[in-house]
Amino acid sequence: MSVEQVRKLLQEESCRNELFRQLEAEPFAAEVVRRHYPHLHDRWLQIGSAIQVPWQYVMIMELALAAALSPTAVLLPLPTLKIYPVVWWFLFHPGATNTSVVVRLYSDVLDLIEMDVNTRRRDMAKSWQEQNPGRDTRNPYTGDVSMTGGSGSLEGEGKLMALPQNLGRSVSFMTEGKRLLKWLQNEGAVNQSIVVELWERMKWKRSTVHADRTFTVMCPFFLAAGALHVEDPLDLYVLNDPLGVRGRLGLLYARPTFKRAAEVEEAAASITLARFGLEASITGVFKAVASVHDPVHSVSPAQFESFKGFHFRIYTLSAEARTAFHHVFDEHTKAHEEARLVNMAEAKYHSKDEIPSSQPGGPYLRTGAAGSVLSDYMDRVDRIFADFVADLKARLEPPQATANGRAGSGAGGRASMRQQLQQILDLPTASFRDLSPANAAILVQLCRALLRRDGAWLDSSAVLKAPNVKEILGAVAPAEQLHHYARAVRLLKLCKLLQMGLGTNPHGTPLIFAVKRVLPSAQDPAYVYYSNVLSAFGLRVGGRGSEYKAIDHTAADVPRPPAAPALAFEAVLTREESANMCAVIRAVAAHQPEA
């Protein structure tokens, strides 16, 4: 199985559509952003409407631009912890989503700011020359500032970054983000620590026998933002990612907007009527960010502190932000400790979350609720794509021959995720009597949550994201959560309270769809049988306080989800079946650890 095989599969329209359907189903908590930053939210919404892109695209580009103009900024949330605004953020898209429009807009804004800085710098150089005629001392304002990256080699970028007036900075807004990945891959063949050096702002020193290719960047500031097609980062997910790029890459997806011409025109007019007025308007907002973080142009040079010859502008946390930071830090430290030598992938993830400068969600953002929304969402996009690619890899594994000569379930005899889930969904009743106390407790709680849940259709991807379900599965590794869910669904199916089946989505993480039975009328004998089962689960049944909720999934106004199978109920529960299932439920409950 190779990267090219996965790439070929991803080129199928049905496969790509399934991936982006899953991403669209992942909620972004826009309300939190709007509540904390109403003016920014309205601004991003307005600009997004004017250029026909989601407002989240504008948010990402503006935050990246603010970071790009702050190469001297450093946050000290703890006395020995330094967090820099280095980001590698990309809009993850299937094509035809106007990503190039928003990337080009902020690339142009950066060009305008760079031009403005250099105009002022030339004026300062001229003034210095007039005030110091005939002096041999080098003019400190000689040489133009280069903020923007080019399309050459990473080595060429390093030569520019090494010039003192550039503050170690190279910023690229890339319509084709694959360029960053290629750069890092090519440089990584020579220097395997290049990713860490650029991300952590360690000294980047290139020594060669050719003097014109030798340079030293004491505190490199290498920032990239732009757009990535779905196949571009595949190497990071299919292979081992030896350079460690994936853990530092931030991916964001948002549903495209479909404004009509009159709406776009109205939004644009509300910002400016001038040609190129949008670029000028945004530039005016961000000029101040560039000035306050440049030791030469800042009105408060005393706010900068020198370290290794580089001038940093120091930021610290407010009391409220410090409390929030401590909570996040301690939470991930605890999770890292628990996962160590048990689940090393999870341990690695949490160890990087302890030091937020290693996280794509933006270190300086994680200290607030709105920042956590963005950071957590990027983490979820990464995991959805990783799970999707893992499923594609499993499908491409050649079947193995078993001892009896028949084809097995995949490489090494390991069943695919779909096969594993189907096995759980076919479990016999007796298997529920032999659960461990921990699994029994999770099973009972999940069943109660499902029985109380509103809605006609239960979709595993949505249910597993519900806060109460996430709390139940908090101690369960992410890879095992769907297995626990499948076991709960199977038990409720045996109780004839629910009908279920695997989704028809051919790619990505398999979905489990289920519908709950609307109880018979109180006059029907079966009503008593179902009431006994629900009571065994500890639910109140009947009357206005009834906890069991079910909606007829066959009603005309209830649409079937796109990937859901057709589901129909069996005959109602009999007295014998009810008594048997009540005994099973009581046995499961008896296995729970004592509170």
What does this structure look like?
Residues 124-144 are annotated as: Disordered. The protein is α/β, with parallel strands linked by helices. The protein has two domains: 3-388, no CATH class; 415-590, no CATH class. 48% of the residues lie in helices and 10% in strands. The strands form four sheets. A four-stranded mixed sheet has the order 2-1-10-9, with no helix packed on it. The protein has a four-stranded parallel sheet with strand order 4-7-3-8, sandwiched between helices. A three-stranded antiparallel sheet has the order 11-13-12. A hairpin with a 2-residue loop joins strand 1 and strand 2 (81-83). Helix 16 (417-425) packs parallel to helix 20. It is elongated. The two termini are 48 Å apart.
Instruction: Summarize the main sheet.
Output: 4 strands, mixed
Tell me the span between the first and last alpha carbons: 48 Å
Low-confidence segments, ≥5 residues, pLDDT <50?
356-367, 399-414
Q: Indicate the structural class.
A: alpha/beta
The strand line-up of the biggest sheet is 2-1-10-9
Average of per-residue pLDDT values: 86
Instruction: Work out the number of β strands.
Output: 13
Number of domain modules: 2
> How many H/I helical runs?
22
Radius of gyration: 29 Å
- Morphology: elongated
What is the percent of helical residues? 40-55%
Strand content: 5-15%
Summarize, please:
The protein has 595 residues and is α/β, with parallel strands linked by helices. It has helices at 3-10, 13-24, 30-36, 38-51, 55-68, 99-131, 154-161, 178-188, 194-199, 234-238, 261-271, 277-292, 319-339, 344-354, 369-396, 417-425, 437-452, 460-463, 467-472, 478-494, 525-536, 575-590, and strands at residues 73-78, 81-83, 88-93, 169-174, 204-206, 215-217, 221-229, 250-252, 304-307, 310-315, 457-459, 498-502, 512-516.
